[in-house]
């Protein structure tokens, strides 16, 4: 309860709390968490969440709080839906904003209470519900410069729209990138060698890419200085990345080079100053190898820039 009240009264986040986030993975995690809600006594009569997610650029924010907000919104949608119904979850980007739509199949919100749904401790549910979910979600979303809106029709379900800014850090100046396929690309993987790193590189090589591996920041910069590279994949845990603003340095040296950052955190060369340059995409855990390859192909084609 004390953490919830702290969120409701919070006015700003410290720079050290802000990190690049993989919004797509967070939305999927929120869906998994929400589907675990007990809607009825009969598990087979539960509610299904169907996600239709588009690739999204990096979002900067406080990961635990945004994850909490998304989970509260989805749980609310699941609990409002009748047995054997579907909650639809879709995403898109527009005008520098990441948009998340949650559409339930419930009975809608009564006009007499629609103006109170974001009030702390207001609920139309059993007394076991504290009535903090939507108020917490709104506080978190607005604290990140976004907003949350609700449209509803009695008997016709409810649509919650979440908007979060995705360009609150500086990107390199747009340039005409030469479109590439994985089969004719040179990819630099910067990260400590391990099972996941080897699997990623092996799968990229199986698709025809030439892959160079660098186990440290110094080695990665050396490759960039001496060879043409079409895509850089950087592990946020690479030695050196946590000590300086690595992504900013790479982007200033190679402004047209797409960068995919894995395992990001607040010190992975991507947080800090307002004038700092940022990666084109970020991916957090769990790292799915096929998704890394898919995002790499998107960045090489120029579609993810």
Strand percent estimate: 15-25%
Helix content: 25-40%
Name the overall outline. elongated
User: Are there runs of 5+ residues with pLDDT below 50, and where?
Assistant: 38-44, 168-175, 269-274
Q: Roughly how many Å apart are the termini?
A: 41 Å
Report strand order across the widest sheet: 2-4-5-7-6
SSE-based structural type: alpha/beta
Describe the 3D structure.
Helices cover 30% and strands 21% of the residues. It has 8 helices and 12 strands. Helix 5 (195-206) links the parallel strand 8 (186-190) and strand 9 (210-214).
Helix/strand layout:
Layout: H1 2-9, E1 19-21, H2 23-35, E2 48-52, E3 59-61, H3 63-80, E4 86-94, E5 97-103, H4 133-143, E6 147-152, E7 158-165, E8 186-190, H5 195-206, E9 210-214, H6 217-226, E10 231-235, H7 246-253, E11 259-262, E12 281-283, H8 289-301
Parallel strand pairs: 2-4, 8-9, 8-10, 10-11, 11-12
Antiparallel strand pairs: 1-3, 4-5, 5-7, 6-7
Features:
305 residues; alpha/beta; five-stranded mixed beta sheet; five-stranded parallel beta sheet; 8 helices; 30% helix; elongated
Short description:
Helices cover about 30% and strands about 20% of the residues. It has eight helices and twelve strands.
């Amino acid at each position: 309860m004390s953490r919830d009240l702290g969120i409701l009264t919070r006015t700003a986040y410290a720079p050290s709390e802000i990190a690049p986030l993989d919004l797509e993975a967070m939305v999927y995690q929120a869906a998994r968490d929400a589907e675990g809600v007990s809607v009825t006594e009969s598990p087979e009569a539960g509610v299904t969440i169907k996600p239709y997610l588009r690739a999204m650029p990096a979002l900067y924010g406080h990961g635990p709080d945004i994850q909490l907000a998304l989970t509260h919104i989805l749980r609310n949608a699941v609990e409002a839906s009748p047995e054997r119904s579907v909650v639809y979850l879709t995403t898109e980007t527009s005008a520098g904003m990441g948009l998340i739509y949650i559409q339930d199949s419930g009975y809608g919100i009564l006009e007499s209470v629609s103006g109170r749904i974001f009030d702390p401790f207001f609920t139309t549910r059993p007394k076991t519900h504290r009535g903090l979910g939507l108020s917490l979600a709104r506080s978190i979303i607005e604290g990140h410069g976004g907003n949350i809106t609700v449209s509803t029709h009695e008997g016709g379900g409810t649509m919650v729209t979440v908007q979060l800014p995705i360009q609150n850090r500086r990107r390199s100046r747009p340039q005409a990138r030469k479109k590439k396929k994985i089969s004719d690309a040179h990819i630099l993987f910067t990260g400590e060698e391990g099972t996941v790193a080897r699997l990623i590189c092996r799968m990229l090589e199986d698709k025809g890419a030439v892959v160079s591996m660098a186990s440290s920041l110094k080695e990665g910069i050396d490759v960039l200085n001496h060879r043409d590279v079409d895509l850089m994949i950087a592990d946020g845990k690479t030695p050196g990345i946590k000590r300086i603003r690595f992504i900013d340095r790479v982007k200033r040296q190679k402004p047209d080079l797409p960068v995919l950052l894995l395992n990001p955190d607040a010190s992975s060369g991507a947080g800090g100053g307002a004038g700092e340059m940022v990666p084109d995409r970020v991916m957090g855990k769990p790292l799915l190898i096929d998704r890394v390859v898919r995002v790499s192909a998107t960045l090489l084609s120029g579609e993810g820039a």
